[in-house]
Design a protein that fits this description.
The complex is a heterodimer of chains A (294) and B (198). With 294 residues, chain A is an alpha/beta fold. Chain A is built from 13 helices and 9 strands. Chain A has one domain: TIM Barrel (Alpha-Beta Barrel). The radius of gyration of chain A is 18 Å and the shape is globular. Chain B is built from 5 helices and 12 strands. In chain B, the strands form 3 sheets. Chain B has a 7-stranded mixed beta sheet. The model of chain B has no long low-confidence stretch (mean pLDDT 95). The chains are: A alpha/beta (294), B alpha/beta (198). Chains A and B meet through strand 1, helix 1, helix 2 and helix 12 of A and helix 1, helix 2 and strand 7 of B. Chain A: It catalyses: aldehydo-D-ribose 5-phosphate + D-glyceraldehyde 3-phosphate + L-glutamine = pyridoxal 5'-phosphate + L-glutamate + phosphate + 3 H2O + H(+). Chain A: One of its GO terms (biological process) is pyridoxal phosphate biosynthetic process.
Chain lengths: 294, 198
């Protein structure tokens, strides 16, 4: 008797991505560059986050043609984004055989109240989080992988750093708590009690937590690994730099050897100019993607 | 205590270390080729085989890994690790370490939505092993020196050739450490000093 879509199969898939870089791509050509550079997976999109930010309007699931083109171009796993709470976009991506779905704040939310019930699906999900409460709620809904929200499309690492530090500090706090205190902490965080108990018992989150939202250089990727990320997502940082293949290779190496500073110096030399960044305070509050979802 | 390394370039490294420690061996993450000299056996973990191969090439790991195996040191490859060990890969002329005489197919069971877990009989190890398959490969055919240890619906999913062991599934994702214990015994055996005649 075989079983598909179990927690072990879904979470295990994300475990296999650890120490790796997942890259945003918008066509087959970019997907091949990413695979060649050593990406562990690609995220198929219609536009990278910085272009979504620039274009404005409603950002939706990518055209299935693009997703299919990317799936046919590479043998590594292919992820795709669905809008928060958009049951049908998620089901369509699942039906197409996408390997992982990102229920993503980069797209315009379809539901401002409810996230997807991710336990219902065979395909695994990754969701963004800024703190332990958000992480635990997503785990409660069945996400098999987490990532920081950061502030997508900015090339500015500050928000991803904030979110990674916040989650890890709260996990440490929880682990050191007495069990009597956990229910009150659950109330404060708005987090499911059982999920917190599980984290407390195991001393860590039950799913991997990658960094995302603002990674633009090899040093950024290594920084996030040092802060405890299990791996990194790079959105606009690669294909908005002036030499994507160089940036992609260098970020992969810096992620693997995040404590080898000589190597990071070496791979960062002469790779070209990183994407132009965006200072967070210049973004109008309603344009902040990290505030989407809850 | 034998020392078992886990190739630490990418993938499920921590889980294998945990499993190695659970069966009473010392687990060491191998990030540099020089570290191969410190260990008695090596695990090639699950992950993305294309990514691992790129990093293997980048850090000149290929020859040292092949030599490690040719010196008689045991190697255990799981999922992507199984692909690295094979001497023939369907649709790819560039096999990696070529240490096991077998032809393998990547993602042979399908994409992630087809990934599954099932109970397996593994010859000499267990009759009820909980095997987790994730975008798993399988072995299409084996040479005469390869012993088939497990099959799932007719496809070969675990095999052994001398001091090389491989599985298409992920023993490191469960608390069932029997296959890792089996590998540890292989390492202990290979590590025994050759008795000199008196």
């Amino acid at each position: 008797m075989s079983k598909v879509g179990t927690d072990r199969v879904k979470r295990g898939m994300a475990e296999m991505q650890k120490g790796g870089v997942i890259m945003d791509v918008v066509n087959a050509e970019q997907a091949k560059i990413a695979e060649e550079a050593g990406a562990v997976a690609v995220m198929a999109l219609e536009r990278v986050p910085s272009d979504i930010r620039a274009a404005g309007g409603v950002a939706r699931m990518a055209d299935p043609t693009i997703v299919e083109e990317v799936m046919n171009a590479v043998s590594i796993p292919v992820m795709a984004k669905a809008r928060i709470g958009h049951i049908v976009e998620a089901r369509v991506l699942e039906a197409m055989g996408v390997d992982y779905i990102d229920e993503s704040e980069v797209l315009t939310p379809a539901d401002e109240v409810y996230h997807l019930n991710k336990r219902d699906y065979t395909v695994p999900f990754v969701c963004g989080c800024r703190n332990l409460g958000e992480a635990a709620r997503r785990i409660g809904e069945g996400t098999a992988m987490l990532r920081t929200k950061g502030e997508p499309g900015t090339g500015n690492i500050v928000e991803a750093v904030r979110h990674m530090r916040e989650v890890n500090a709260q996990v440490r706090q929880l682990v050191n708590m007495s069990v009597d205190e956990v229910m009150t902490y659950a109330k404060e965080l708005g987090a499911p009690y059982e999920v917190l108990l599980d984290i407390k018992e195991n001393g860590r989150l039950p799913v991997v937590n990658f960094a995302a939202g603002g990674i633009a250089t090899p040093a950024d990727a290594a920084l996030m690994m040092q802060l405890g990320a299990d791996g990194v997502f790079v959105g606009s940082g690669i294909f908005k730099s002036d030499n994507p293949a160089n940036f992609a290779r260098a970020i992969v190496e810096a992620t693997t050897h995040y404590e080898d500073y000589e190597l990071i110096a070496k791979v960062s030399k002469g790779i070209g100019t990183a994407m132009k960044g965006l200072e967070i305070s210049t973004i109008a509050p309603e344009q902040r993607m990290q505030d989407r979802g809850w | 205590m034998v020392r078992i390394g886990v190739l630490g370039l990418q993938g499920a490294i921590r889980e294998h270390i945990r499993s190695v420690e659970a069966v009473g061996a010392e687990g060491i993450v191998i990030k540099h080729k020089e570290q191969l000299e410190e260990i008695d056996g090596l695990i090639l973990p699950g992950g993305e085989s294309t990514t691992m191969r790129r990093l293997i090439d980048k850090y000149d790991f290929l020859e040292p890994l092949i030599n490690f195996g040719k010196q008689g040191k045991p190697i255990f490859g799981t999922c992507a690790g199984l692909i690295l060990l094979a001497n023939d890969i369907v649709g790819n002329d560039n096999a990696h370490l070529r240490l096991m005489d077998m032809k393998v197919e990547r993602n042979a069971f399908g994409r992630q939505r087809e990934s599954f877990e099932a109970e397996l009989e593994i010859k000499g190890v267990a009759s009820d092993f909980e095997a987790v398959f994730i975008r798993a490969p399988y072995i299409v055919e084996v040479g005469p020196e390869v012993e088939v240890m497990a099959t799932y619906k007719g496809s070969i999913v675990a095999a052994k050739q001398g001091h090389f062991l491989c599985s298409a599934f992920h023993p490191e994702l469960t608390d069932d450490h029997r296959l890792t214990a089996y590998f540890k015994e292989m390492v202990e055996k290979a590590n025994e000093p050759v008795l000199q005649g008196v």
